Amino acid sequence: MSHRELKDCIFCQIAAGQRPASLICESELTLAFVDLRQYNAGHALVIPRAHLHDVRDLDDATGAALMSTVTRVARAVSTAFHCEGMSLWHSIGEAGFQEVPHLHFHIHPRLKGDHLFQLYPTSPPTPDRTTLERYAALIREKL
Ligand SMILES: [Zn+2]
What we know:
The chain is of the alpha+beta class. Helix content is 31%, strand content 17%. Strands 1-2-3-5-4 form a five-stranded antiparallel sheet, with helices on one face. The radius of gyration is 17 Å and the shape is globular. The chain binds zinc ion.
């Protein structure tokens, strides 16, 4: 990763205090702040301080710290704002609609019928058990 890439990363700039953000909390390894876009009030982001692209780059300590902050902030958002449910998501790559190439989890309050997004634009296939077992084996081999 080039120096320029890091310098231009808006989340690295926020972590370094070089760009304004409405901070929720920070720890040695993580940071949580309010997203600029508030489709439903309370939309927050949680990031590692380190410039990591996505969860595949996480070490165990940073991963544990990240999930701890996600959990704390999700609890707080769900009680601070009107919230009938929540969506938590982490996008990876262009195909996954990752907009900032610095690992981040969205914590988003949901309201019934808010049309923020829904899973599966069409009904997905439900393969037989043999196929599911084969998929599990393919993934296990790579653990
Ligand atoms: Zn970054």
